[in-house]
């Protein structure tokens, strides 16, 4: 079936002023101004009310944290005390609670125009050994693309790390399970719906051996590597005290400095370290909202891009954001970066949209998503400008960001509508809210 998404109000693509033709799971052609599809179409969707974007790509999240948003034990704390307060609470996570937490996070992302999400799940208390399989199943049910990162922690307080003993795993257990889930779920093909990445959590919660062995597994299975790095000054101090080096030097020592790697946050890299990351093709996921909530600092987005490092966008955990809305994150990225660079011209709405689409796709190592172009996957987010907040707006693309768009009217993933008229297809939102609220009360 060939579907013409016709005559959008605006579209973030070159030569597609009259829209795009979707055939199967791919974009078959872009229709330029004054043109028409090159071949007959089977159906037409009138997009004259819609601003069309490539599906947004979220490169860092912690889905389980939707259960502990605005938690009184963690409000108004910076990262280390925030984690110390929440680790014992998160240790009570079970499969039923995790499943509904994942579902809610995915629905939130989908409604914000997100079509691909990377979740960094590193918490495996007893009973939650099948967390990766749960995430894969929930994403499949909703029709989103996923990079599920098999996260890990094996350095507890007794070993000099930050997490309590109750939430860490044995090193060999982690590596064996990493190999298992790679064998089960990792799909490297074009248009794949599920990929696996390996993601030892952070320098203060994993050992060097785990980092090295994870890198070796990534080479064997051709998968990505992900971790938190350079998020806070406390992390710098920890690395200096325990390892006698800076976080990026540690990354190089364990064999992670290469194009297979993307990092979350990257707040405290020096300009010289940005150059190093660019030379080695290491991606950085910018998390403007959580970095603001936890007062972590500013990511050097312009320096990283100038050096050649892919820059993507992520909402980060829903207990440090405290939402799962990537379109809001696009707006926050503009505001935070203009503050950081003290210039209104430093970062535009188009820069932030690029990070959330093409840049994020590069971080995940995917050339088949992130752009509207013939041959790319048909992942699209369509927004209307009907709300009062948009009245008087003259540039539709800028209006999405500057006027605060936060909910898509239509979302397509792999050529199939997954959001219609502002609602996720096949999901009872009232029931989901009730089930999730009930699960969250266990963590009060």
From TrEMBL:
Entries under CDD domains matching the protein: ATZ_TRZ_like (cd01298)
Sample GO molecular function, one term: 8-oxoguanine deaminase activity
Annotated Amidohydrolase-related domain residues: 51-417
Keywords (A to Z) from UniProt: Hydrolase
Similarity annotation: Belongs to the metallo-dependent hydrolases superfamily. ATZ/TRZ family.
Name of the protein in question: 8-oxoguanine deaminase
Catalytic activity, EC: 3.5.4.32
Record PANTHER family: AMIDOHYDROLASE-RELATED DOMAIN-CONTAINING PROTEIN, AMINOHYDROLASE SSNA-RELATED
Natural source organism: Alsobacter ponti
